[in-house]
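Course assignment 3, question 2. Fill in each field.
Student: A.L.
Task: Predict the tertiary structure for the chain below.
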Amino acid sequence: MSISIKNINLTVNEDVYLKDISLDFESGSTNIFLGRTLAGKTSLLRIMAGLDRPDQGKIFVNGEDVTGLSVRKRNISMVYQQFINYPSFTIYENIASPLKISKMDKREIDRRVREVAEMLHLESMLDRIPTELSGGQQQRCAIARALVKDSNLLLLDEPLVNLDYKLREELQIDLQNIFKERDAIVIYTTTEPAEALKLGGNIVVLDQGKMIQTGVTSQVFHQPATIKVAEVFSDPPINLLHCTVDDSALKLGENLRIPLKSHLSTLTPGRYIAGIRSNHLYLNSQNNSNVQLETIVKLAEINGSETFIHVTYETTQLVVQEVGVYSQKIDSKIMVHLDPANLFVFSEAGSLLLSPDNRSPEKQL
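Answer field:
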């Protein structure tokens, strides 16, 4: 199966929701739509599902124009942010409901329900009703009902966003395995770069209704084409510092000079923008290549097992992401360390010129 969307545009009350989107998808592919809130992810998903129609553009399935085809006539499944289950049905009946509507043989329904329930660890809960389950278990039920149809197109709109961190991690692993076993086209929306990397596959980065980069997920992470892509594909957004280059060094601020070694050696004299992700700024030196920035603490946010320290380097705002819990006195001076090998370099117009040596997404995160 193949799906092509061509030149999709959508405007609502003069607000541009989608602008000139063209994409192709093939069976067996996992595709991530990554973007912030209001980037256009859900709007594009609803058009692909047949729930909404674009102002312009067409959708083709195996070469056939299905733009105006009702959602009921499309072989799709969709999972929403908020789990939706029939409250008076058992979990078994909830999962089986789309198969019963299609009048499938009872034995085949039973086989499919129990198979997908086992995948999502619901086999011991099939006789319960949704209110007897936790929120995470109810969302598993909603996902199971979508999977049981064995649809050609599986759409998941931030399905794990309302679950706690531990459960989200478990389901991300489960979903990776499920996606690999199916021949469907899977499209999964998220606002979170870490989730996109875990799910892998291909990615479409969206911003304000526009498609700003596509490609293999890990490659786009390592090679963001622009500052905007790097900001969307970093959480917190990538730190940016204006810099200049002369014949021997890259200069950050008034006094810090970084020798033009490694990937920086190809830079020619001029003005640039350096980028570094928050998890590549440290409170303690990591190796002999590290350089130091003298900064002033503006805020320290403790989030679970991590601390996000907001600092000012000269006139530039930076965020340091450290594993562990650290208390910092506001307006105190601290030294922040970075390895020049982790620097991205962009043109002043925002286009990527140089990126760090490629590493696995796990090490980058």
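Instructor remarks: Residues 165-181 form the longest helix (17 residues). Residues 152 and 184 are 5 Å apart (CA to CA).
Grade: pending
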